[in-house]
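Sample entry was shown:
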Amino acid sequence: MKKLIFSLLFALPVMAQDGFKNDNGNLVWQYTYPSVTNMQAMIDSKPDLQVTAFINDTYTGLVNKVKNTCTEGSPVMRNDCSFDFEIRSENGNYIAVISNIKIIEVMGPMRARTIESRCEKYFVDAALKLKKDVRTQKDMKCLDSFLTSVFSDAITTTVTLSAN
């Protein structure tokens, strides 16, 4: 029982940090992946992830234009998006941190006008707090599920057991 309580005390703070947070008016998304994650294999399998540096077990890079596959949010969430990322190893887990998230809206006749808007426009209010209205919460859930999938498809290491 002591071990369970002890492990929960240390595991909960790590899990509680996942999702969106407001860092002085800048929207940041973070997710912790388990230690069985093979980040190099995941990065290699995702051509949209452009790694710009790998220093001290930390990958940094960007995604210029990726299709948001979420269908649950408002029409704005169905647009392409771009963002910066950092993936680092910490306490045996991998942590993906996404910042500078932008929604790329294509508008007008013949879709000739492109506007890149920071996500803060949609998710952060004038007081620099995360918005709490129903639409924003639904859109944040949609984007959270999309970002989680960007870094979780095909990232777990498969272990094959053989009987002797």
